[in-house]
Design goal:
This protein is α/β, with parallel strands linked by helices. 37% of the residues lie in helices and 22% in strands. The strands form seven sheets. A seven-stranded mixed sheet has the order 15-18-19-14-13-21-22, with helices on both faces. The protein is globular and about 70 Å long. The structure holds glyceraldehyde-3-phosphate. The site of glyceraldehyde-3-phosphate has 9 residues, from loops.
């Protein structure tokens, strides 16, 4: 059991002396798949949160030579120092990823390695940005030296499903562009940040990175209410993002970098290659138990192949292996959010009461902190499982006759992140792709939806995102174009 009580403010690792300690991490499963206590973390107070903000403000406003004006090569050196120290913590962080959020061993290793690659790629991209900025431009007798400058203080909040990778996809570009930061980890997947505190402390100047723990309302709200945050960077749900945004007294000045909900559909045309389609739909709907913003959350199947698809897909779901994240070949693992199985059950009950059936034999079977994925068919639009972002193991299937049906649904949806389109006839696919790219931001052909590779733009339309992430785009999202001009005289 890890009772962690240290946080990072203004270049110091401080001990939390307050009384309120919150049990934030309980997933670690035993053989009976019962949750066991893994550790606790302080639920810090307003004062400590404001100290962290003070650290970030001081570091940003220290004048010449401070982080925002520091030589680019010096900022890169700090980041390189950090990533090397982080790599030395691989085993510890990977173990905590498994224990805290139930991510399988291969996926946990991938999350760590992908994050390290992200940092190295960001450094390289930043060097290129700097090389481009070194070129002077001249138009109509005006010389300009155009570059990218930081935005100020960034409050950064990450999600529990990618507590390392997605949080760092916000934090790392924010830091390297010269902003100063306050980072509050997600409720689950919080302990795995603790082995990295010393690496942050010893790699960056005082106050550039401040790390605090606690509930959003106890620590993030007081920071927002000061009006001194310039960027809200959050991957999670729009309810938290909106609440925090509204607390900022000058919210129109706040830059938002947000990755939010999605309800990505799979559309399966009658000529789709079924083996491949089923493989991709299994991965798309159930990788990490469907707890991914990019997961396939609704499946549209053409009526001509409905029966065969339903039968084979349901069998494949029941053949997946459930177990602890560190066991070999495990695909389904315990869920970190204690209320999730009950929520999934509610969605199933609602769908059954409105005429859907569970297609797979094990669908809806309960373990302590798990519920077996239920494949539901026929799903209709009045069902909650169609309307809500389930973010867990339940798969709604709809039948369509005319392609306009899923297209109309996508146009009416509040979300617009990605879609997966399965079919063989390129002449039929081409016009469809043109329509789909205007409804979402990424069309995946004969493959499931995903964020990576991390060099590609990751964003969404409507309520799914604000700003774009990716190695390249995030540097732009966390900066503003500035320039120095002089006349040709
Ligand atoms: O939760 C949303 C993540 O960005 C999904 O990332 O597609 O790499 O699993 P992924």
């Amino acid at each position: 059991v890890i009772h962690h009580n240290t946080y990072l403010v203004d270049g110091e690792l401080r001990k939390w002396e307050g009384n309120s300690t919150e049990v934030f991490s309980t997933i670690s499963s035993t053989e009976a798949y019962k949750p066991t206590l893994l550790g606790s973390i302080p639920d810090m107070d307003e004062k400590s949160a404001l100290d962290a903000l003070g650290g970030a403000l001081k570091a940003y406003n220290q004048g010449q030579g401070a982080w925002p004006t520091m030589r680019i090569s010096d900022r890169i050196e700090c980041m390189e120092k950090f990533v090397k120290k982080m790599e030395a913590k691989r085993n510890e962080v990977v173990k905590l990823l498994m224990w805290e959020i139930g991510k399988s061993l291969p996926d946990s290793e991938k999350e760590f390695d992908r994050t390290v690659d992200y940092i190295y790629d960001t450094i390289e991209d930043y060097k290129q940005l700097d090389r481009d900025a070194a070129k002077f431009k001249k138009h109509d007798g005006v010389y300009a030296h155009i570059r990218r400058g930081p935005l100020g203080v960034v409050l950064c909040l990450g999600p529990y499903n990618y507590p390392l990778n997605e949080t760092f996809a916000l934090l790392i570009p924010a830091i390297i562009m010269g902003n100063t930061t306050i980072f509050k980890p997600a409720k689950h997947g919080v302990l795995l940040i603790t082995p990295l505190l010393e690496a942050f402390r010893s790699s960056f100047p005082k106050g550039v990175v401040n790390i605090i723990f606690g509930r959003g309302r106890t620590v993030a709200s007081p920071i927002m209410k000061t009006g001194k945050v310039d960027v809200l960077a959050l991957i999670g749900n729009s309810k938290s993002a909106n609440a925090l945004q509204e607390q900022h007294p000058k919210s129109n000045r706040l830059r938002l970098v947000l990755g939010l909900e999605a309800k990505n559909p799979a559309i399966i045309l009658p000529d789709a290659e079924l083996d491949l389609t089923i493989d991709e739909c299994i991965a798309g709907t159930l990788s990490f138990n469907g707890q991914r913003c990019t997961a396939l959350k609704v499946v549209y199947v053409h009526e001509d192949i409905q029966e065969e698809f339903n039968k084979r897909f349901a069998e494949r779901v029941d053949a997946l292996k459930f177990g602890n994240p560190w066991e070999n070949g495990v695909k389904l693992t315990p869920l970190p959010e204690p209320g999730k199985p009950a929520y999934i059950q509610e969605l199933i009950d609602d769908a059954l009461s409105k005429g859907a059936k569970i297609l797979n034999k094990k669908g809806g079977k309960h373990y302590d902190n798990y519920i077996w994925p239920a494949v539901l068919y026929p799903v209709t639009k009045d069902m909650r499982v169609y309307q809500e972002e389930q973010f867990g193991p339940v798969i709604p299937i709809l039948s369509f006759k005319d392609i306009e049906e899923p297209l109309d649904d996508m146009a009416a949806s509040n979300y617009g992140q990605q879609v997966s389109l399965f079919g063989k006839d390129v002449y039929a696919l081409a016009p469809l792709i043109d329509t789909l790219v205007n409804l979402v931001c990424r069309v995946n052909l004969n493959s499931s939806c995903q964020r990576g590779p991390d060099v590609y733009p990751f964003t969404g339309r409507k309520d799914s995102a604000q700003a774009t992430l990716s190695v390249h785009d995030a540097l732009r999202s966390f900066s503003i174009r500035t320039f120095v001009a002089s006349k040709d005289n």
